Amino acid sequence: MGALEIRGLRKQFGGVAALAGVDLTIVEGEILGIVGPNGSGKTTLFNVITGVHKPTAGTVTWRGRDMTGTPAHAVSHAGIAHTFQQAMAFPGLSVLENVQIATEHCRTDGERPFPWPTPDDLIGFVGLQALRHEIAGVLPFGNLRLLGIALALATRPSLLLLDEPAAGLNDKETTTLVELVQQLPGHGISVCVIDHDMSLMQRLCRRLVVLDFGSKIADGPTAEVLADPKVLEVYLGG
Ligand code: ADP
Fold first, then answer.
1. How does pLDDT run across 105-163, given as a tens digit for each residue?
2. How far apart are alpha carbons 61 and 66 in whole angstroms?
3. Residue limits of the ABC transporter domain (predicted)?
4. Is the CB of 18 under 6 A from ligand 1?
5. Alpha-carbon gap, residue 185 to 174, rounded angstroms
6. 195 lines ligand 1 (CB under 6 A)
7. Among 23, 140, 179, 194, which residue's Cβ finds the most Cβ atoms within 10 Å?
8. Is the pTM of this model over 0.90?
9. What does the alpha-carbon distance between residue 203 and residue 136 come to, in Å, rounded to a whole number?
């Protein structure tokens, strides 16, 4: 059984089935990629997992526990964190102060050792140690993204959901991000990332899931999925 098991997940917005019955497993310790054209349901999937939206039908099971329709704070408390495209830092506070606040509000059920016992350890992990007294609001975009990851990690997740983590980053920043994310499974954190940057996904993910019009059309090893005629058709508009 996977860490996160999604079965028959459906989310209807009026006449639109943003998710039209999706089955998906996130395996413990993997970095899973979810791709698909605009409007295919990727963000809705994250929003249902994280409790922003209640599904119309289907189930979300996290480590054997039914989490379907669980509110966002309880999902976070259960060990599922997510980053936003816009970093959610307090702009008037320093990097260190932001991470301290996030750490103080973390879940407390600590069932496993945390790899970064202090805020400074976490700031070091994301490579912002030299900037820890900088005000978050003046950080360059790429560093703000790294701070966003630190804030998500401060909640002590076992699963981290990343929403277009490399959007707006330059090549060097993207490489830093990839190297960072690749270390997470080694720290006991599974990762699920949505993005439409295929080269990023090829670097980051061994397994890819493709959504199209709210349905899963492919699921397997990245290279195989990217060579799948169904997937090529979606991307080439064939
Ligand atoms: P993606 O992230 O793959 O671009 P989304 O999950 O954002 O796709 O959207 C899937 C579909 O659901 C789209 O047709 C979108 O217009 C619709 N949708 C998403 N969120 C809402 C909402 N809050 N209200 C109405 N329709 C929505």
1. 776 555 667 889 899 999 999 999 999 999 999 999 899 999 999 999 998 999 999 99
2. 4
3. 4-238
4. yes
5. 18
6. no
7. 194
8. yes
9. 29
Residue 109, classed as helix, strand or coil, is coil
Atom 7 (ligand 1): residue with closest C-alpha? Answer: 43
Place of tokens 């259960």: 78
Place of tokens 């804030």: 151
Closest CA to 207 of 3, 7, 51, 30: 30
- Pick from 195, 205, 170: which is nearest to 83 by CA? 195
| Ligand 1 centroid, distance to 156 Cα (angstroms) | 29
CA 40 to ligand 1: nearest atom: 3
C-beta separation of 106 from 116 below 8 A? no
| 41 Cα–ligand 1 center, Å | 6
Closest atom, ligand 1, to C-alpha of 47: 6
CA of 226 to the centre of ligand 1 (A): 24
